[in-house]
Give the backbone structure.
Amino acid sequence: MQTHEIRRRFLDHFISAGHTEVASASLILHDPNLLFVNAGMVQFVPYFLGQQTPPFATATSVQKCVRTLDIENVGHTTRHNTFFQMAGNFSFGDYFKRGAIELAWSLLTKSLDEGGYGFDPERLWVTVYLDDDEAIQIWKDVAGLPDERIQRRGMADNYWSMGIPGPCGPCSEIYYDRGPAYGKDGGPEADEDRYIEIWNLVFMQNERGLGRGKDDFEILGPLPKQNIDTGMGVERVAFLLQGVDNVYETDLVRPVITKAEELTGRQYGSKHEDDVRFRVIADHARTAAMLIADGVNPGNEGRGYILRRLLRRIVRSARLLGADKPVVGEFMSVVRDEMSPSYPELATDFDRIQTVAVGEETAFLKTLTSGSKLFEEAADEVKASGKSVIPGSEAFTLHDTYGFPIDLTLEMAEEAGLTVDEAGFRELMAEQRKRAKEDAQARKHAHADLSVYKELVDRGPTEFTGFDELDTEATVLAIISGGVRQPVAEAGTDVEVILDRSPLYAESGGQIADRGSLSGSGLKAKVNDVQKIAKKLWVHKVTIEQGQLLEGDTVTAHVDPAWRKGATQGHSGTHMVHAALRQVLGPNAVQAGSMNKPGYLRFDFNWQGGLSEAQRDEIERVSNEAVGEDFAVNTFVTDLPSAKKMGAMALFGENYGDEVRVVEIGGPFSMELCGGTHVGSSAQIGPITLLGESAVGSGVRRVEAYVGLDSYKHLAKERALLAGIASSLKVPSDQVPGRVEQIVTRLKAAEKEVERLKAQAVLSSAGSLANGATTAGRFRVVAAKVPGVSANDLRTLAGDIKGRLGSEPAVVALFGDVDDKVPFLVVVNAGGQDAGARAGDLVKSFAPKIGGRGGGKADSAQGAGTDAAGIPAAIADVTAALSGL
Ligand code: SER
């Protein structure tokens, strides 16, 4: 049965049992604790916790999931996919254990003709949480399972949570027995490779607190309702129903292996190590495409790092399989063909996906070359010193700086007849991991500190009044200082203030927070910043300037009107630049981040390579023309699917069921989902001046701009600069460029002439230098500093001096001094060589004194250093060496 069919049957089964079909959420949701969405229930967390009322009592979905904890296992086992699809059914206080078990059992065991999967009931096993006798009884009633095929397991296996605070509960898992050929008897407890887990039914009934791992956390108490969350592994069911050996050979994944066979000329199934590489490519190519589709870009941390690692593993594996050309683009096409029937974004966004993936491959192929060079140097050095082990530190640098996985280094070492100090390497890796862990720990503590806000968050969201007014009367709900609530704040202190309502915009969506003040009887306080906690609680960071602030006080919160006016210009200006950018560059210029405040904005977007001056000018022109059109700015609230249908640019991470606010400026010109504050019509933004464009990471560019009065001020400053230059040059402004060009040309010619005259003067000094020759032992010696002479002229000069010294043993050592470099040269005439002087030896001995290196033959040797201060010591060295001969 094909994967698309497995998905379809799942959804149909639950839809006909009254469930609402819900689309998969993006792989990226705005939760700093969760790298990627890793289960079907993630988008429903607020419903389980009772924070939001679900629009349906039961739902079903097939959710895109990414889990990368076991990335090293990929390709080695039968069932580790970094990307997989979790089919699930959910009940929000509707049916509970019996309903979930009945629905799962019937889909699994119904015949193919009846729309089921047709699994043999005799081969299904289940596990339940230790004391869940109720579930055991239901399994017996519903499925007629005998005692020996129901196993009780502990918290680590049968108590499910997301690994972070949130809903949790005991669970019951369903396993399929592949038969004795695949492992020992004894059920899932004995062998999870023979008994494959296919479905997890979670009886979601408690709330989990902080803690660690799967079984070391606090249970805070029951959820408002008893819920169901289930997850069936679509790839696992596919692998069992398709009669293949593992998840990599299922219908949607295997075509990538076939493409890899084509590109590398090797056959899947002939050699174990090669097979692992084929499977790594197949798994990772799919995950990479899905991640890029959802807005992830390769980078050095967090999500971006995971994507980078996946793409590099593909490139490396393909090379180890013998590919010598770029391959990633081809794999992306195969993934699109297989997966786009379920995930159309892979087809509609394909150009961007392709550009990002291939860009990363190109970058890695570059470091692969420089890394290989570094490896060769290290190998040569090891061999030259008569050893055979490449130090762990080199392997670590290759890994850390050049992205070389250790097994690539090992393989290359083997080819060179060397080994690698793996223990040393692992030690350095462990140190690095320890640092990373300490980092993560620190972040967790920051999260723990948020507990003071919890009861306030539970009380409900802060009401934002700032779209309609700038002054709002509000009640002080809490005063917090150093993470602790306090009843009162005195003048001169900095505290955080939570109000029931506020007109001040809290930083979000790239717009920084409003500045303003609080006032009340005798109270004057300045608001320096406003941040949101849990997306809904406004935390005002406040300095009390006069009087006292008490919990329960009534105060008036004011937005500084000048600030707000600037902020609206900054934010609307950002939308203008975004729209102009897409008009000029096309839809691949996808937003990657932004920041705006009064007078200034910056906008990051996905793009390979820099923008041309013409493109920049065009973006600026289009933005300013849109300002000039004086488009009306309309804002309205709707649901996500309607907003998308209207063509609003949806940012990644919006959730199904979310109400979204659309900001529309000039009809189709700009339509974005946005919660920010905006001008009333586009002319109010004022002029937009692009400041420049730069790179902020691999494949991400940034434009910056001034808006409004700041834009004018910037231009006025530039005009004053130009006027200043014009007056110094004594020409009108419009003649400045021609005049500057003239001056530069003349200056260059004059510099050349100075150089020529200098060299002439030095060369003509050969006579006086020869006359100043000293004696050292049996030698006539000229050793001198000749500033301003290039390495070439040194040779001419030295030859001239040598000729003037005649045939008695003579040595000439000259030191230049140009542009912070010290070229030097030693020549020895025939008599000098007979007397035992060797130019090469002399140079080698004094070179370190001037911070350089050099060498050569007996008659002539040269080199260069960087430290002119060492020249007298070098000259002394030459004289001493010759005296001793
Ligand atoms: N949330 C559970 C899991 O991920 C069931 O959907 O296994």
Summary: The longest strand covers residues 195-212. Residues 15 and 21 are 7 Å apart (CA to CA).
